[in-house]
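debug: dumping io for the single-chain case to check the tokenizer round-trip. Nothing else runs in this session.
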Amino acid sequence: MFVHAHPDDETITTGGTLAGLAEAGREPLLVTLTRGERGEVTPGPFAALEGTDGLAPHRQQELAAALAFLGVQRHAFLGVPPARADELSPTIYEDSGMAWGPDGRAIAAGDASRDALTSVPAVEALNDLLAAAYQAGASAIVSYDDDGGYGHPDHVLTHRLSRAVAQALGLPFWAITASDANTASDATGDEDRVEAHDVSDWMERKVAALRAHGTQLTVDGDDIVHVGGQREPIARVERFRRVPHVPLEG
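debug: decoded output
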């Protein structure tokens, strides 16, 4: 079970692995926690969607197209079955928003709505994610590292929820690990606990899925150009670090 905060995160960091698992018949489940309602939008034909009620449904359509390119058939938004606790009505967890801190990393926005992922009681979101993992028969959980990759509050909470579910169910937890995009070396020093997946065989699918997320990024040669203009190489190697469970006392 792959757990991501917003549409497009799944393709940028794990798209090749998702495509490889899907092709191998492993049927990965992707759970997306929000619809990215407060995301910035790239300049161009979709720019007018920024800050409007039309952005969320558009990003849902982008995600559906991306998953079709990757071959992923199992997907749920948190708060909607199968990612909703039994006997609770469906709900929507909204994007919490973010701001850029002085160090260039994301920090929490000061105006998150009461329905934002980081505003609602964490136990509700936790129970929904537990339900998703249990009903899917998950054998492992994949999500961000403890700082969410770049500090976005939704990413940080996604890590905490995912790791708690893995611990509760006794499942392996794999943290997405950033290092050089296209080499087998690891920058964390934890080579014994890191899996490096060469996803070259699925790059066409990954690039097509990236292009589907047109409100959030553009593809320029071998690079992703993010909405803020930041460039990032499209990773041909995707890395995951096995995070041990915290020993329980008593």
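debug: round-trip ok. Residues 2-243 form a domain with the Rossmann fold fold (CATH 3.40.50.10320).
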